[in-house]
Write a structure and sequence with these properties.
Layout (H helix, E strand, L loop, with lengths): L2 H4 L17 E7 L3 E14 L3 E15 L6 H4 L4 H20 L4 E6 L1 H5 L3 H12 L4 E2 L2 H12 L9 E7 L4 E8 L5 E9 L3 H7 L7 H22 L1 H6 L3 E5 L2 H10 L7 H4 L3 E3 H12 L3 H5 L12 H14 L4 E4 L4 H10 L6 E2 L3 E2 L3
Parallel strand pairs: 1-4, 4-5, 6-9, 8-12, 8-13, 9-11
Antiparallel strand pairs: 1-2, 2-3, 6-7, 7-8, 10-11
Helix pairs in contact: 3-5, 6-15, 7-14, 8-14, 10-12, 12-14
């Protein structure tokens, strides 16, 4: 195992280790549903007023649905089968890191590991069997990294943005301020204990009936109402000061369905703008299909067919509460934010904001 992979990356306390010159970087995101990794090479470019900075070019990637969080909402524990599946995926990631001679990496885990009572046991096993060192990050850091990853899609002419990530085990929502100097600050952040896997499991499977679907919409709206009450986002929407960006499999899939793609194409979907009417029509069409019909859609498939309606219900609640009118689709987020932090941490600074606790 390469040294950077074995120990989880470079020494972030050593400024000399932050130089990206000639470096290969890896960012691994282990979520409730997916294990995903990007490997990238740093590239120098001019930023801002011409000062040198670094971006990255992806040279390798990995994505596998492992459903690590399967059953966690009911049992509070990671199952042996889910851990086995995930360990196999992480072994593949470690092999790729070694093959690419990764010089710096960061591997993070999110909601499933935050919830599971036996997470420490799982993390020990990961280190023992793969050499990787997983770091459990908070919902606030998860959301902030996702913001960094999709910041390039922000319209800097609008002073506010609602940015959300519908994950497998939770949904993070950020309210962001863009000042006159294009600096970003997090006005507020909230994490909902509802994601596509947890909602699908809690509702008895992926075929949500009409009443159950509406129940999820109402529950998400109720959870988000205190956040709206604090920040009065609706007033800023009425003043046409707010944009919305969604970074999740739910919104990227809806983008692919809207474009009627024969197979999913990230280049076509990333940065796509969808009117709320289009989002609603595409969602209604999905709700009218059986599980088999959803699975037959080339942008969905069998592995995600049972999760789409749960994601659509969460998305509908967000759009209902904050009727911005358009949604920009981001096929980027946490992993890209991790890479930017590794390669050039000073390039994009985000002022932190409060994490809102749910009652």
């Amino acid at each position: 195992m390469a040294e950077a992979s074995r120990h989880g990356g470079i020494d972030l306390s050593d400024p000399s280790s932050r130089s990206p010159d000639g470096g290969i970087f890896a960012a691994l995101d282990l979520g409730t549903n997916n294990c995903r990794m990007l490997v990238a090479r740093a590239e120098q470019r001019r930023v801002g007023d011409g000062e040198p900075g670094y971006d990255f070019r992806v040279i390798d990637s990995f994505s596998r649905i492992t459903r690590l969080g399967e059953g966690v909402s009911a049992t509070g524990r990671l199952s042996d089968e889910a851990m086995d599946r995930t360990i196999e995926a992480l072994k593949r990631c470690a092999e790729k890191m070694d093959k690419r001679r990764v010089s710096a990496s960061r591997q993070v885990a999110t909601e499933a590991c935050r919830r599971a009572a036996n997470c420490a046991e799982f993390l020990d096993r990961v280190t023992r069997e793969t050499g990787l060192s997983l770091e459990i990050i908070s919902p606030h850091e998860e959301a902030t990294l996702a913001l960094k990853g999709c910041a390039a899609l922000l319209d800097r002419q609008l002073p506010y943005a609602v940015i959300f990530d519908i994950g497998g085990g939770s949904t993070e929502v950020l309210f962001v301020r863009i000042d006159d100097h294009n600096a970003l600050s997090v006005v507020g952040c909230v994490s909902l204990p509802m994601g596509v896997v947890t909602v699908a499991e809690d509702c008895g499977g992926g075929d949500l009936c009409g009443r159950t679907y509406q129940g999820v919409v109402e529950r998400v709206c109720k959870l988000l109402e205190p956040f709206e009450g604090v920040h009065r986002i609706g007033d800023k929407i009425a003043a046409r000061e707010v944009q919305m960006i969604g970074t999740s499999g739910t919104v990227t899939t809806l983008g692919g369905l809207h474009l009627k793609l024969d197979r999913y194409d990230r280049a076509a979907v990333d940065g796509l703008t969808l009117d709320f009417d289009v989002v609603s029509a595409t969602t209604r069409a999905l709700c009218g299909k059986t599980m088999q019909q959803r699975a037959a859609e080339p942008c969905i498939g069998w592995q995600r067919a049972d999760l789409m309606l749960a994601g659509c219900a969460i998305l509908e609640a967000i759009c209902k509460l904050w009727p911005v009118g358009t949604l920009r689709v981001a096929d980027r987020g946490l992993r890209e934010g991790l890479l930017l932090d590794l390669i050039n941490p000073a390039l994009l600074k985000v002022a932190p904001g409060p994490m809102h606790q749910l009652a």
